[in-house]
Design goal:
Layout lengths: L1 H29 L3 H23 L1 E6 L2 H5 L4 E5 L5 H9 L3 E5 L8 H6 L4 E3 L4 H16 L4 E3 L20 H6 L2 E12 L2 E2 L16 H8 L5 E7 L9 H20 L2
Parallel strand pairs: 1-8, 2-5, 2-6, 3-4, 3-5
Antiparallel strand pairs: 6-7, 6-8
Helix pairs in contact: 1-2, 2-4
């Protein structure tokens, strides 16, 4: 029975990916205006990621997300990072632009999906490229888009929130937008509380490739996750100050969620 459910999920997911790429590719060909194209990309990906969560059995409990979904103003959204599912959870809640590591740009399928989601590939280790990427992010924020950044720079094993890298938080200061911290916390897998034993079925870290982990994920019946909006950080702080405040708020919310 498990393999039947897994097969159905896989077919449904493939259909979602293929139709998403076809529609986004057509938008890329037809729409010339960069801002309009980016708006289409972000809204299309938000719709498809909502559908993908249904296929994967992921239920999101959204807590205090008034500013995130109000649409009155855009933010530099920063979040802890545990899995590629974090992107699904956040983007299914609000259309946004995703900041991705440049190493993913040439990854089979993932690179194309991120590109047609309106994603921005950045190179953290090259200073000259870093400055260009920073300006690109500022331009996107000036256009009025939410930009999502995972400042840990990589996913974690769920034990704690890793220290934040500060580089791209300069984009918020340079654009005059608020930094909006979010806390992502996975609560249950197949109805059971998440722990060190079953956590790696959702948390994406270590030597597993994306496809190896994803095929394991398809075996799960249900995943419960909390998405919590925290207090905004207004412009005026340095990038290090913003990173410190955001880290304290996110890590505190994450630990409180587990009752540490």
């Amino acid at each position: 029975m498990v393999w039947v459910i897994k097969t159905v999920k896989m077919l449904a997911f493939v259909i979602l990916v293929v139709t998403f790429l076809i529609i986004s590719f057509c938008v890329d060909l037809i729409v010339g205006n960069k801002m309009v194209k980016l708006r289409y990309f972000s809204r299309i990906s938000s719709f498809y990621l909502r559908a993908a969560l249904i296929v994967l059995g992921v239920k999101v409990r959204r807590r205090n997300i008034d500013k995130l979904v109000s649409g009155k103003e855009n933010h530099l959204v920063i979040s802890n990072h545990l899995s590629y599912l974090d992107i699904f959870v956040i983007f299914s809640t609000v259309p946004a632009v995703f900041i991705a590591n440049s190493e993913l740009e040439d990854t089979f399928l993932l690179g194309a999906i991120i590109k047609y989601s309106g994603g921005v590939f950045v190179e953290r280790r090259n200073r000259s490229r870093l400055l260009q990427d920073m300006q690109h992010i500022k331009n996107i924020l000036h256009m009025g888009f939410n930009v999502v950044l995972f400042p840990e720079g990589t996913t974690s094993d769920g034990e704690e929130v890793k220290p934040f890298k500060t580089s791209f938080l300069d984009a918020a200061a340079g654009s005059g937008v608020d930094v909006l911290p979010l806390c992502v916390r996975y609560r249950k897998i197949n109805g059971e509380d998440i722990d060190a034993g079953n956590g790696r079925l959702v948390y994406y870290y270590g030597d597993l490739t994306f496809f190896e982990h994803f095929f394991r994920l398809l075996n799960l019946r249900s995943i419960s996750v909390d998405l919590t909006e925290l207090e905004v950080i207004p412009p005026g702080y340095t990038r290090k100050e913003s990173a410190r405040i955001a880290f304290e708020r996110i890590s505190t919310a994450y630990k409180e969620g587990f009752g540490f």
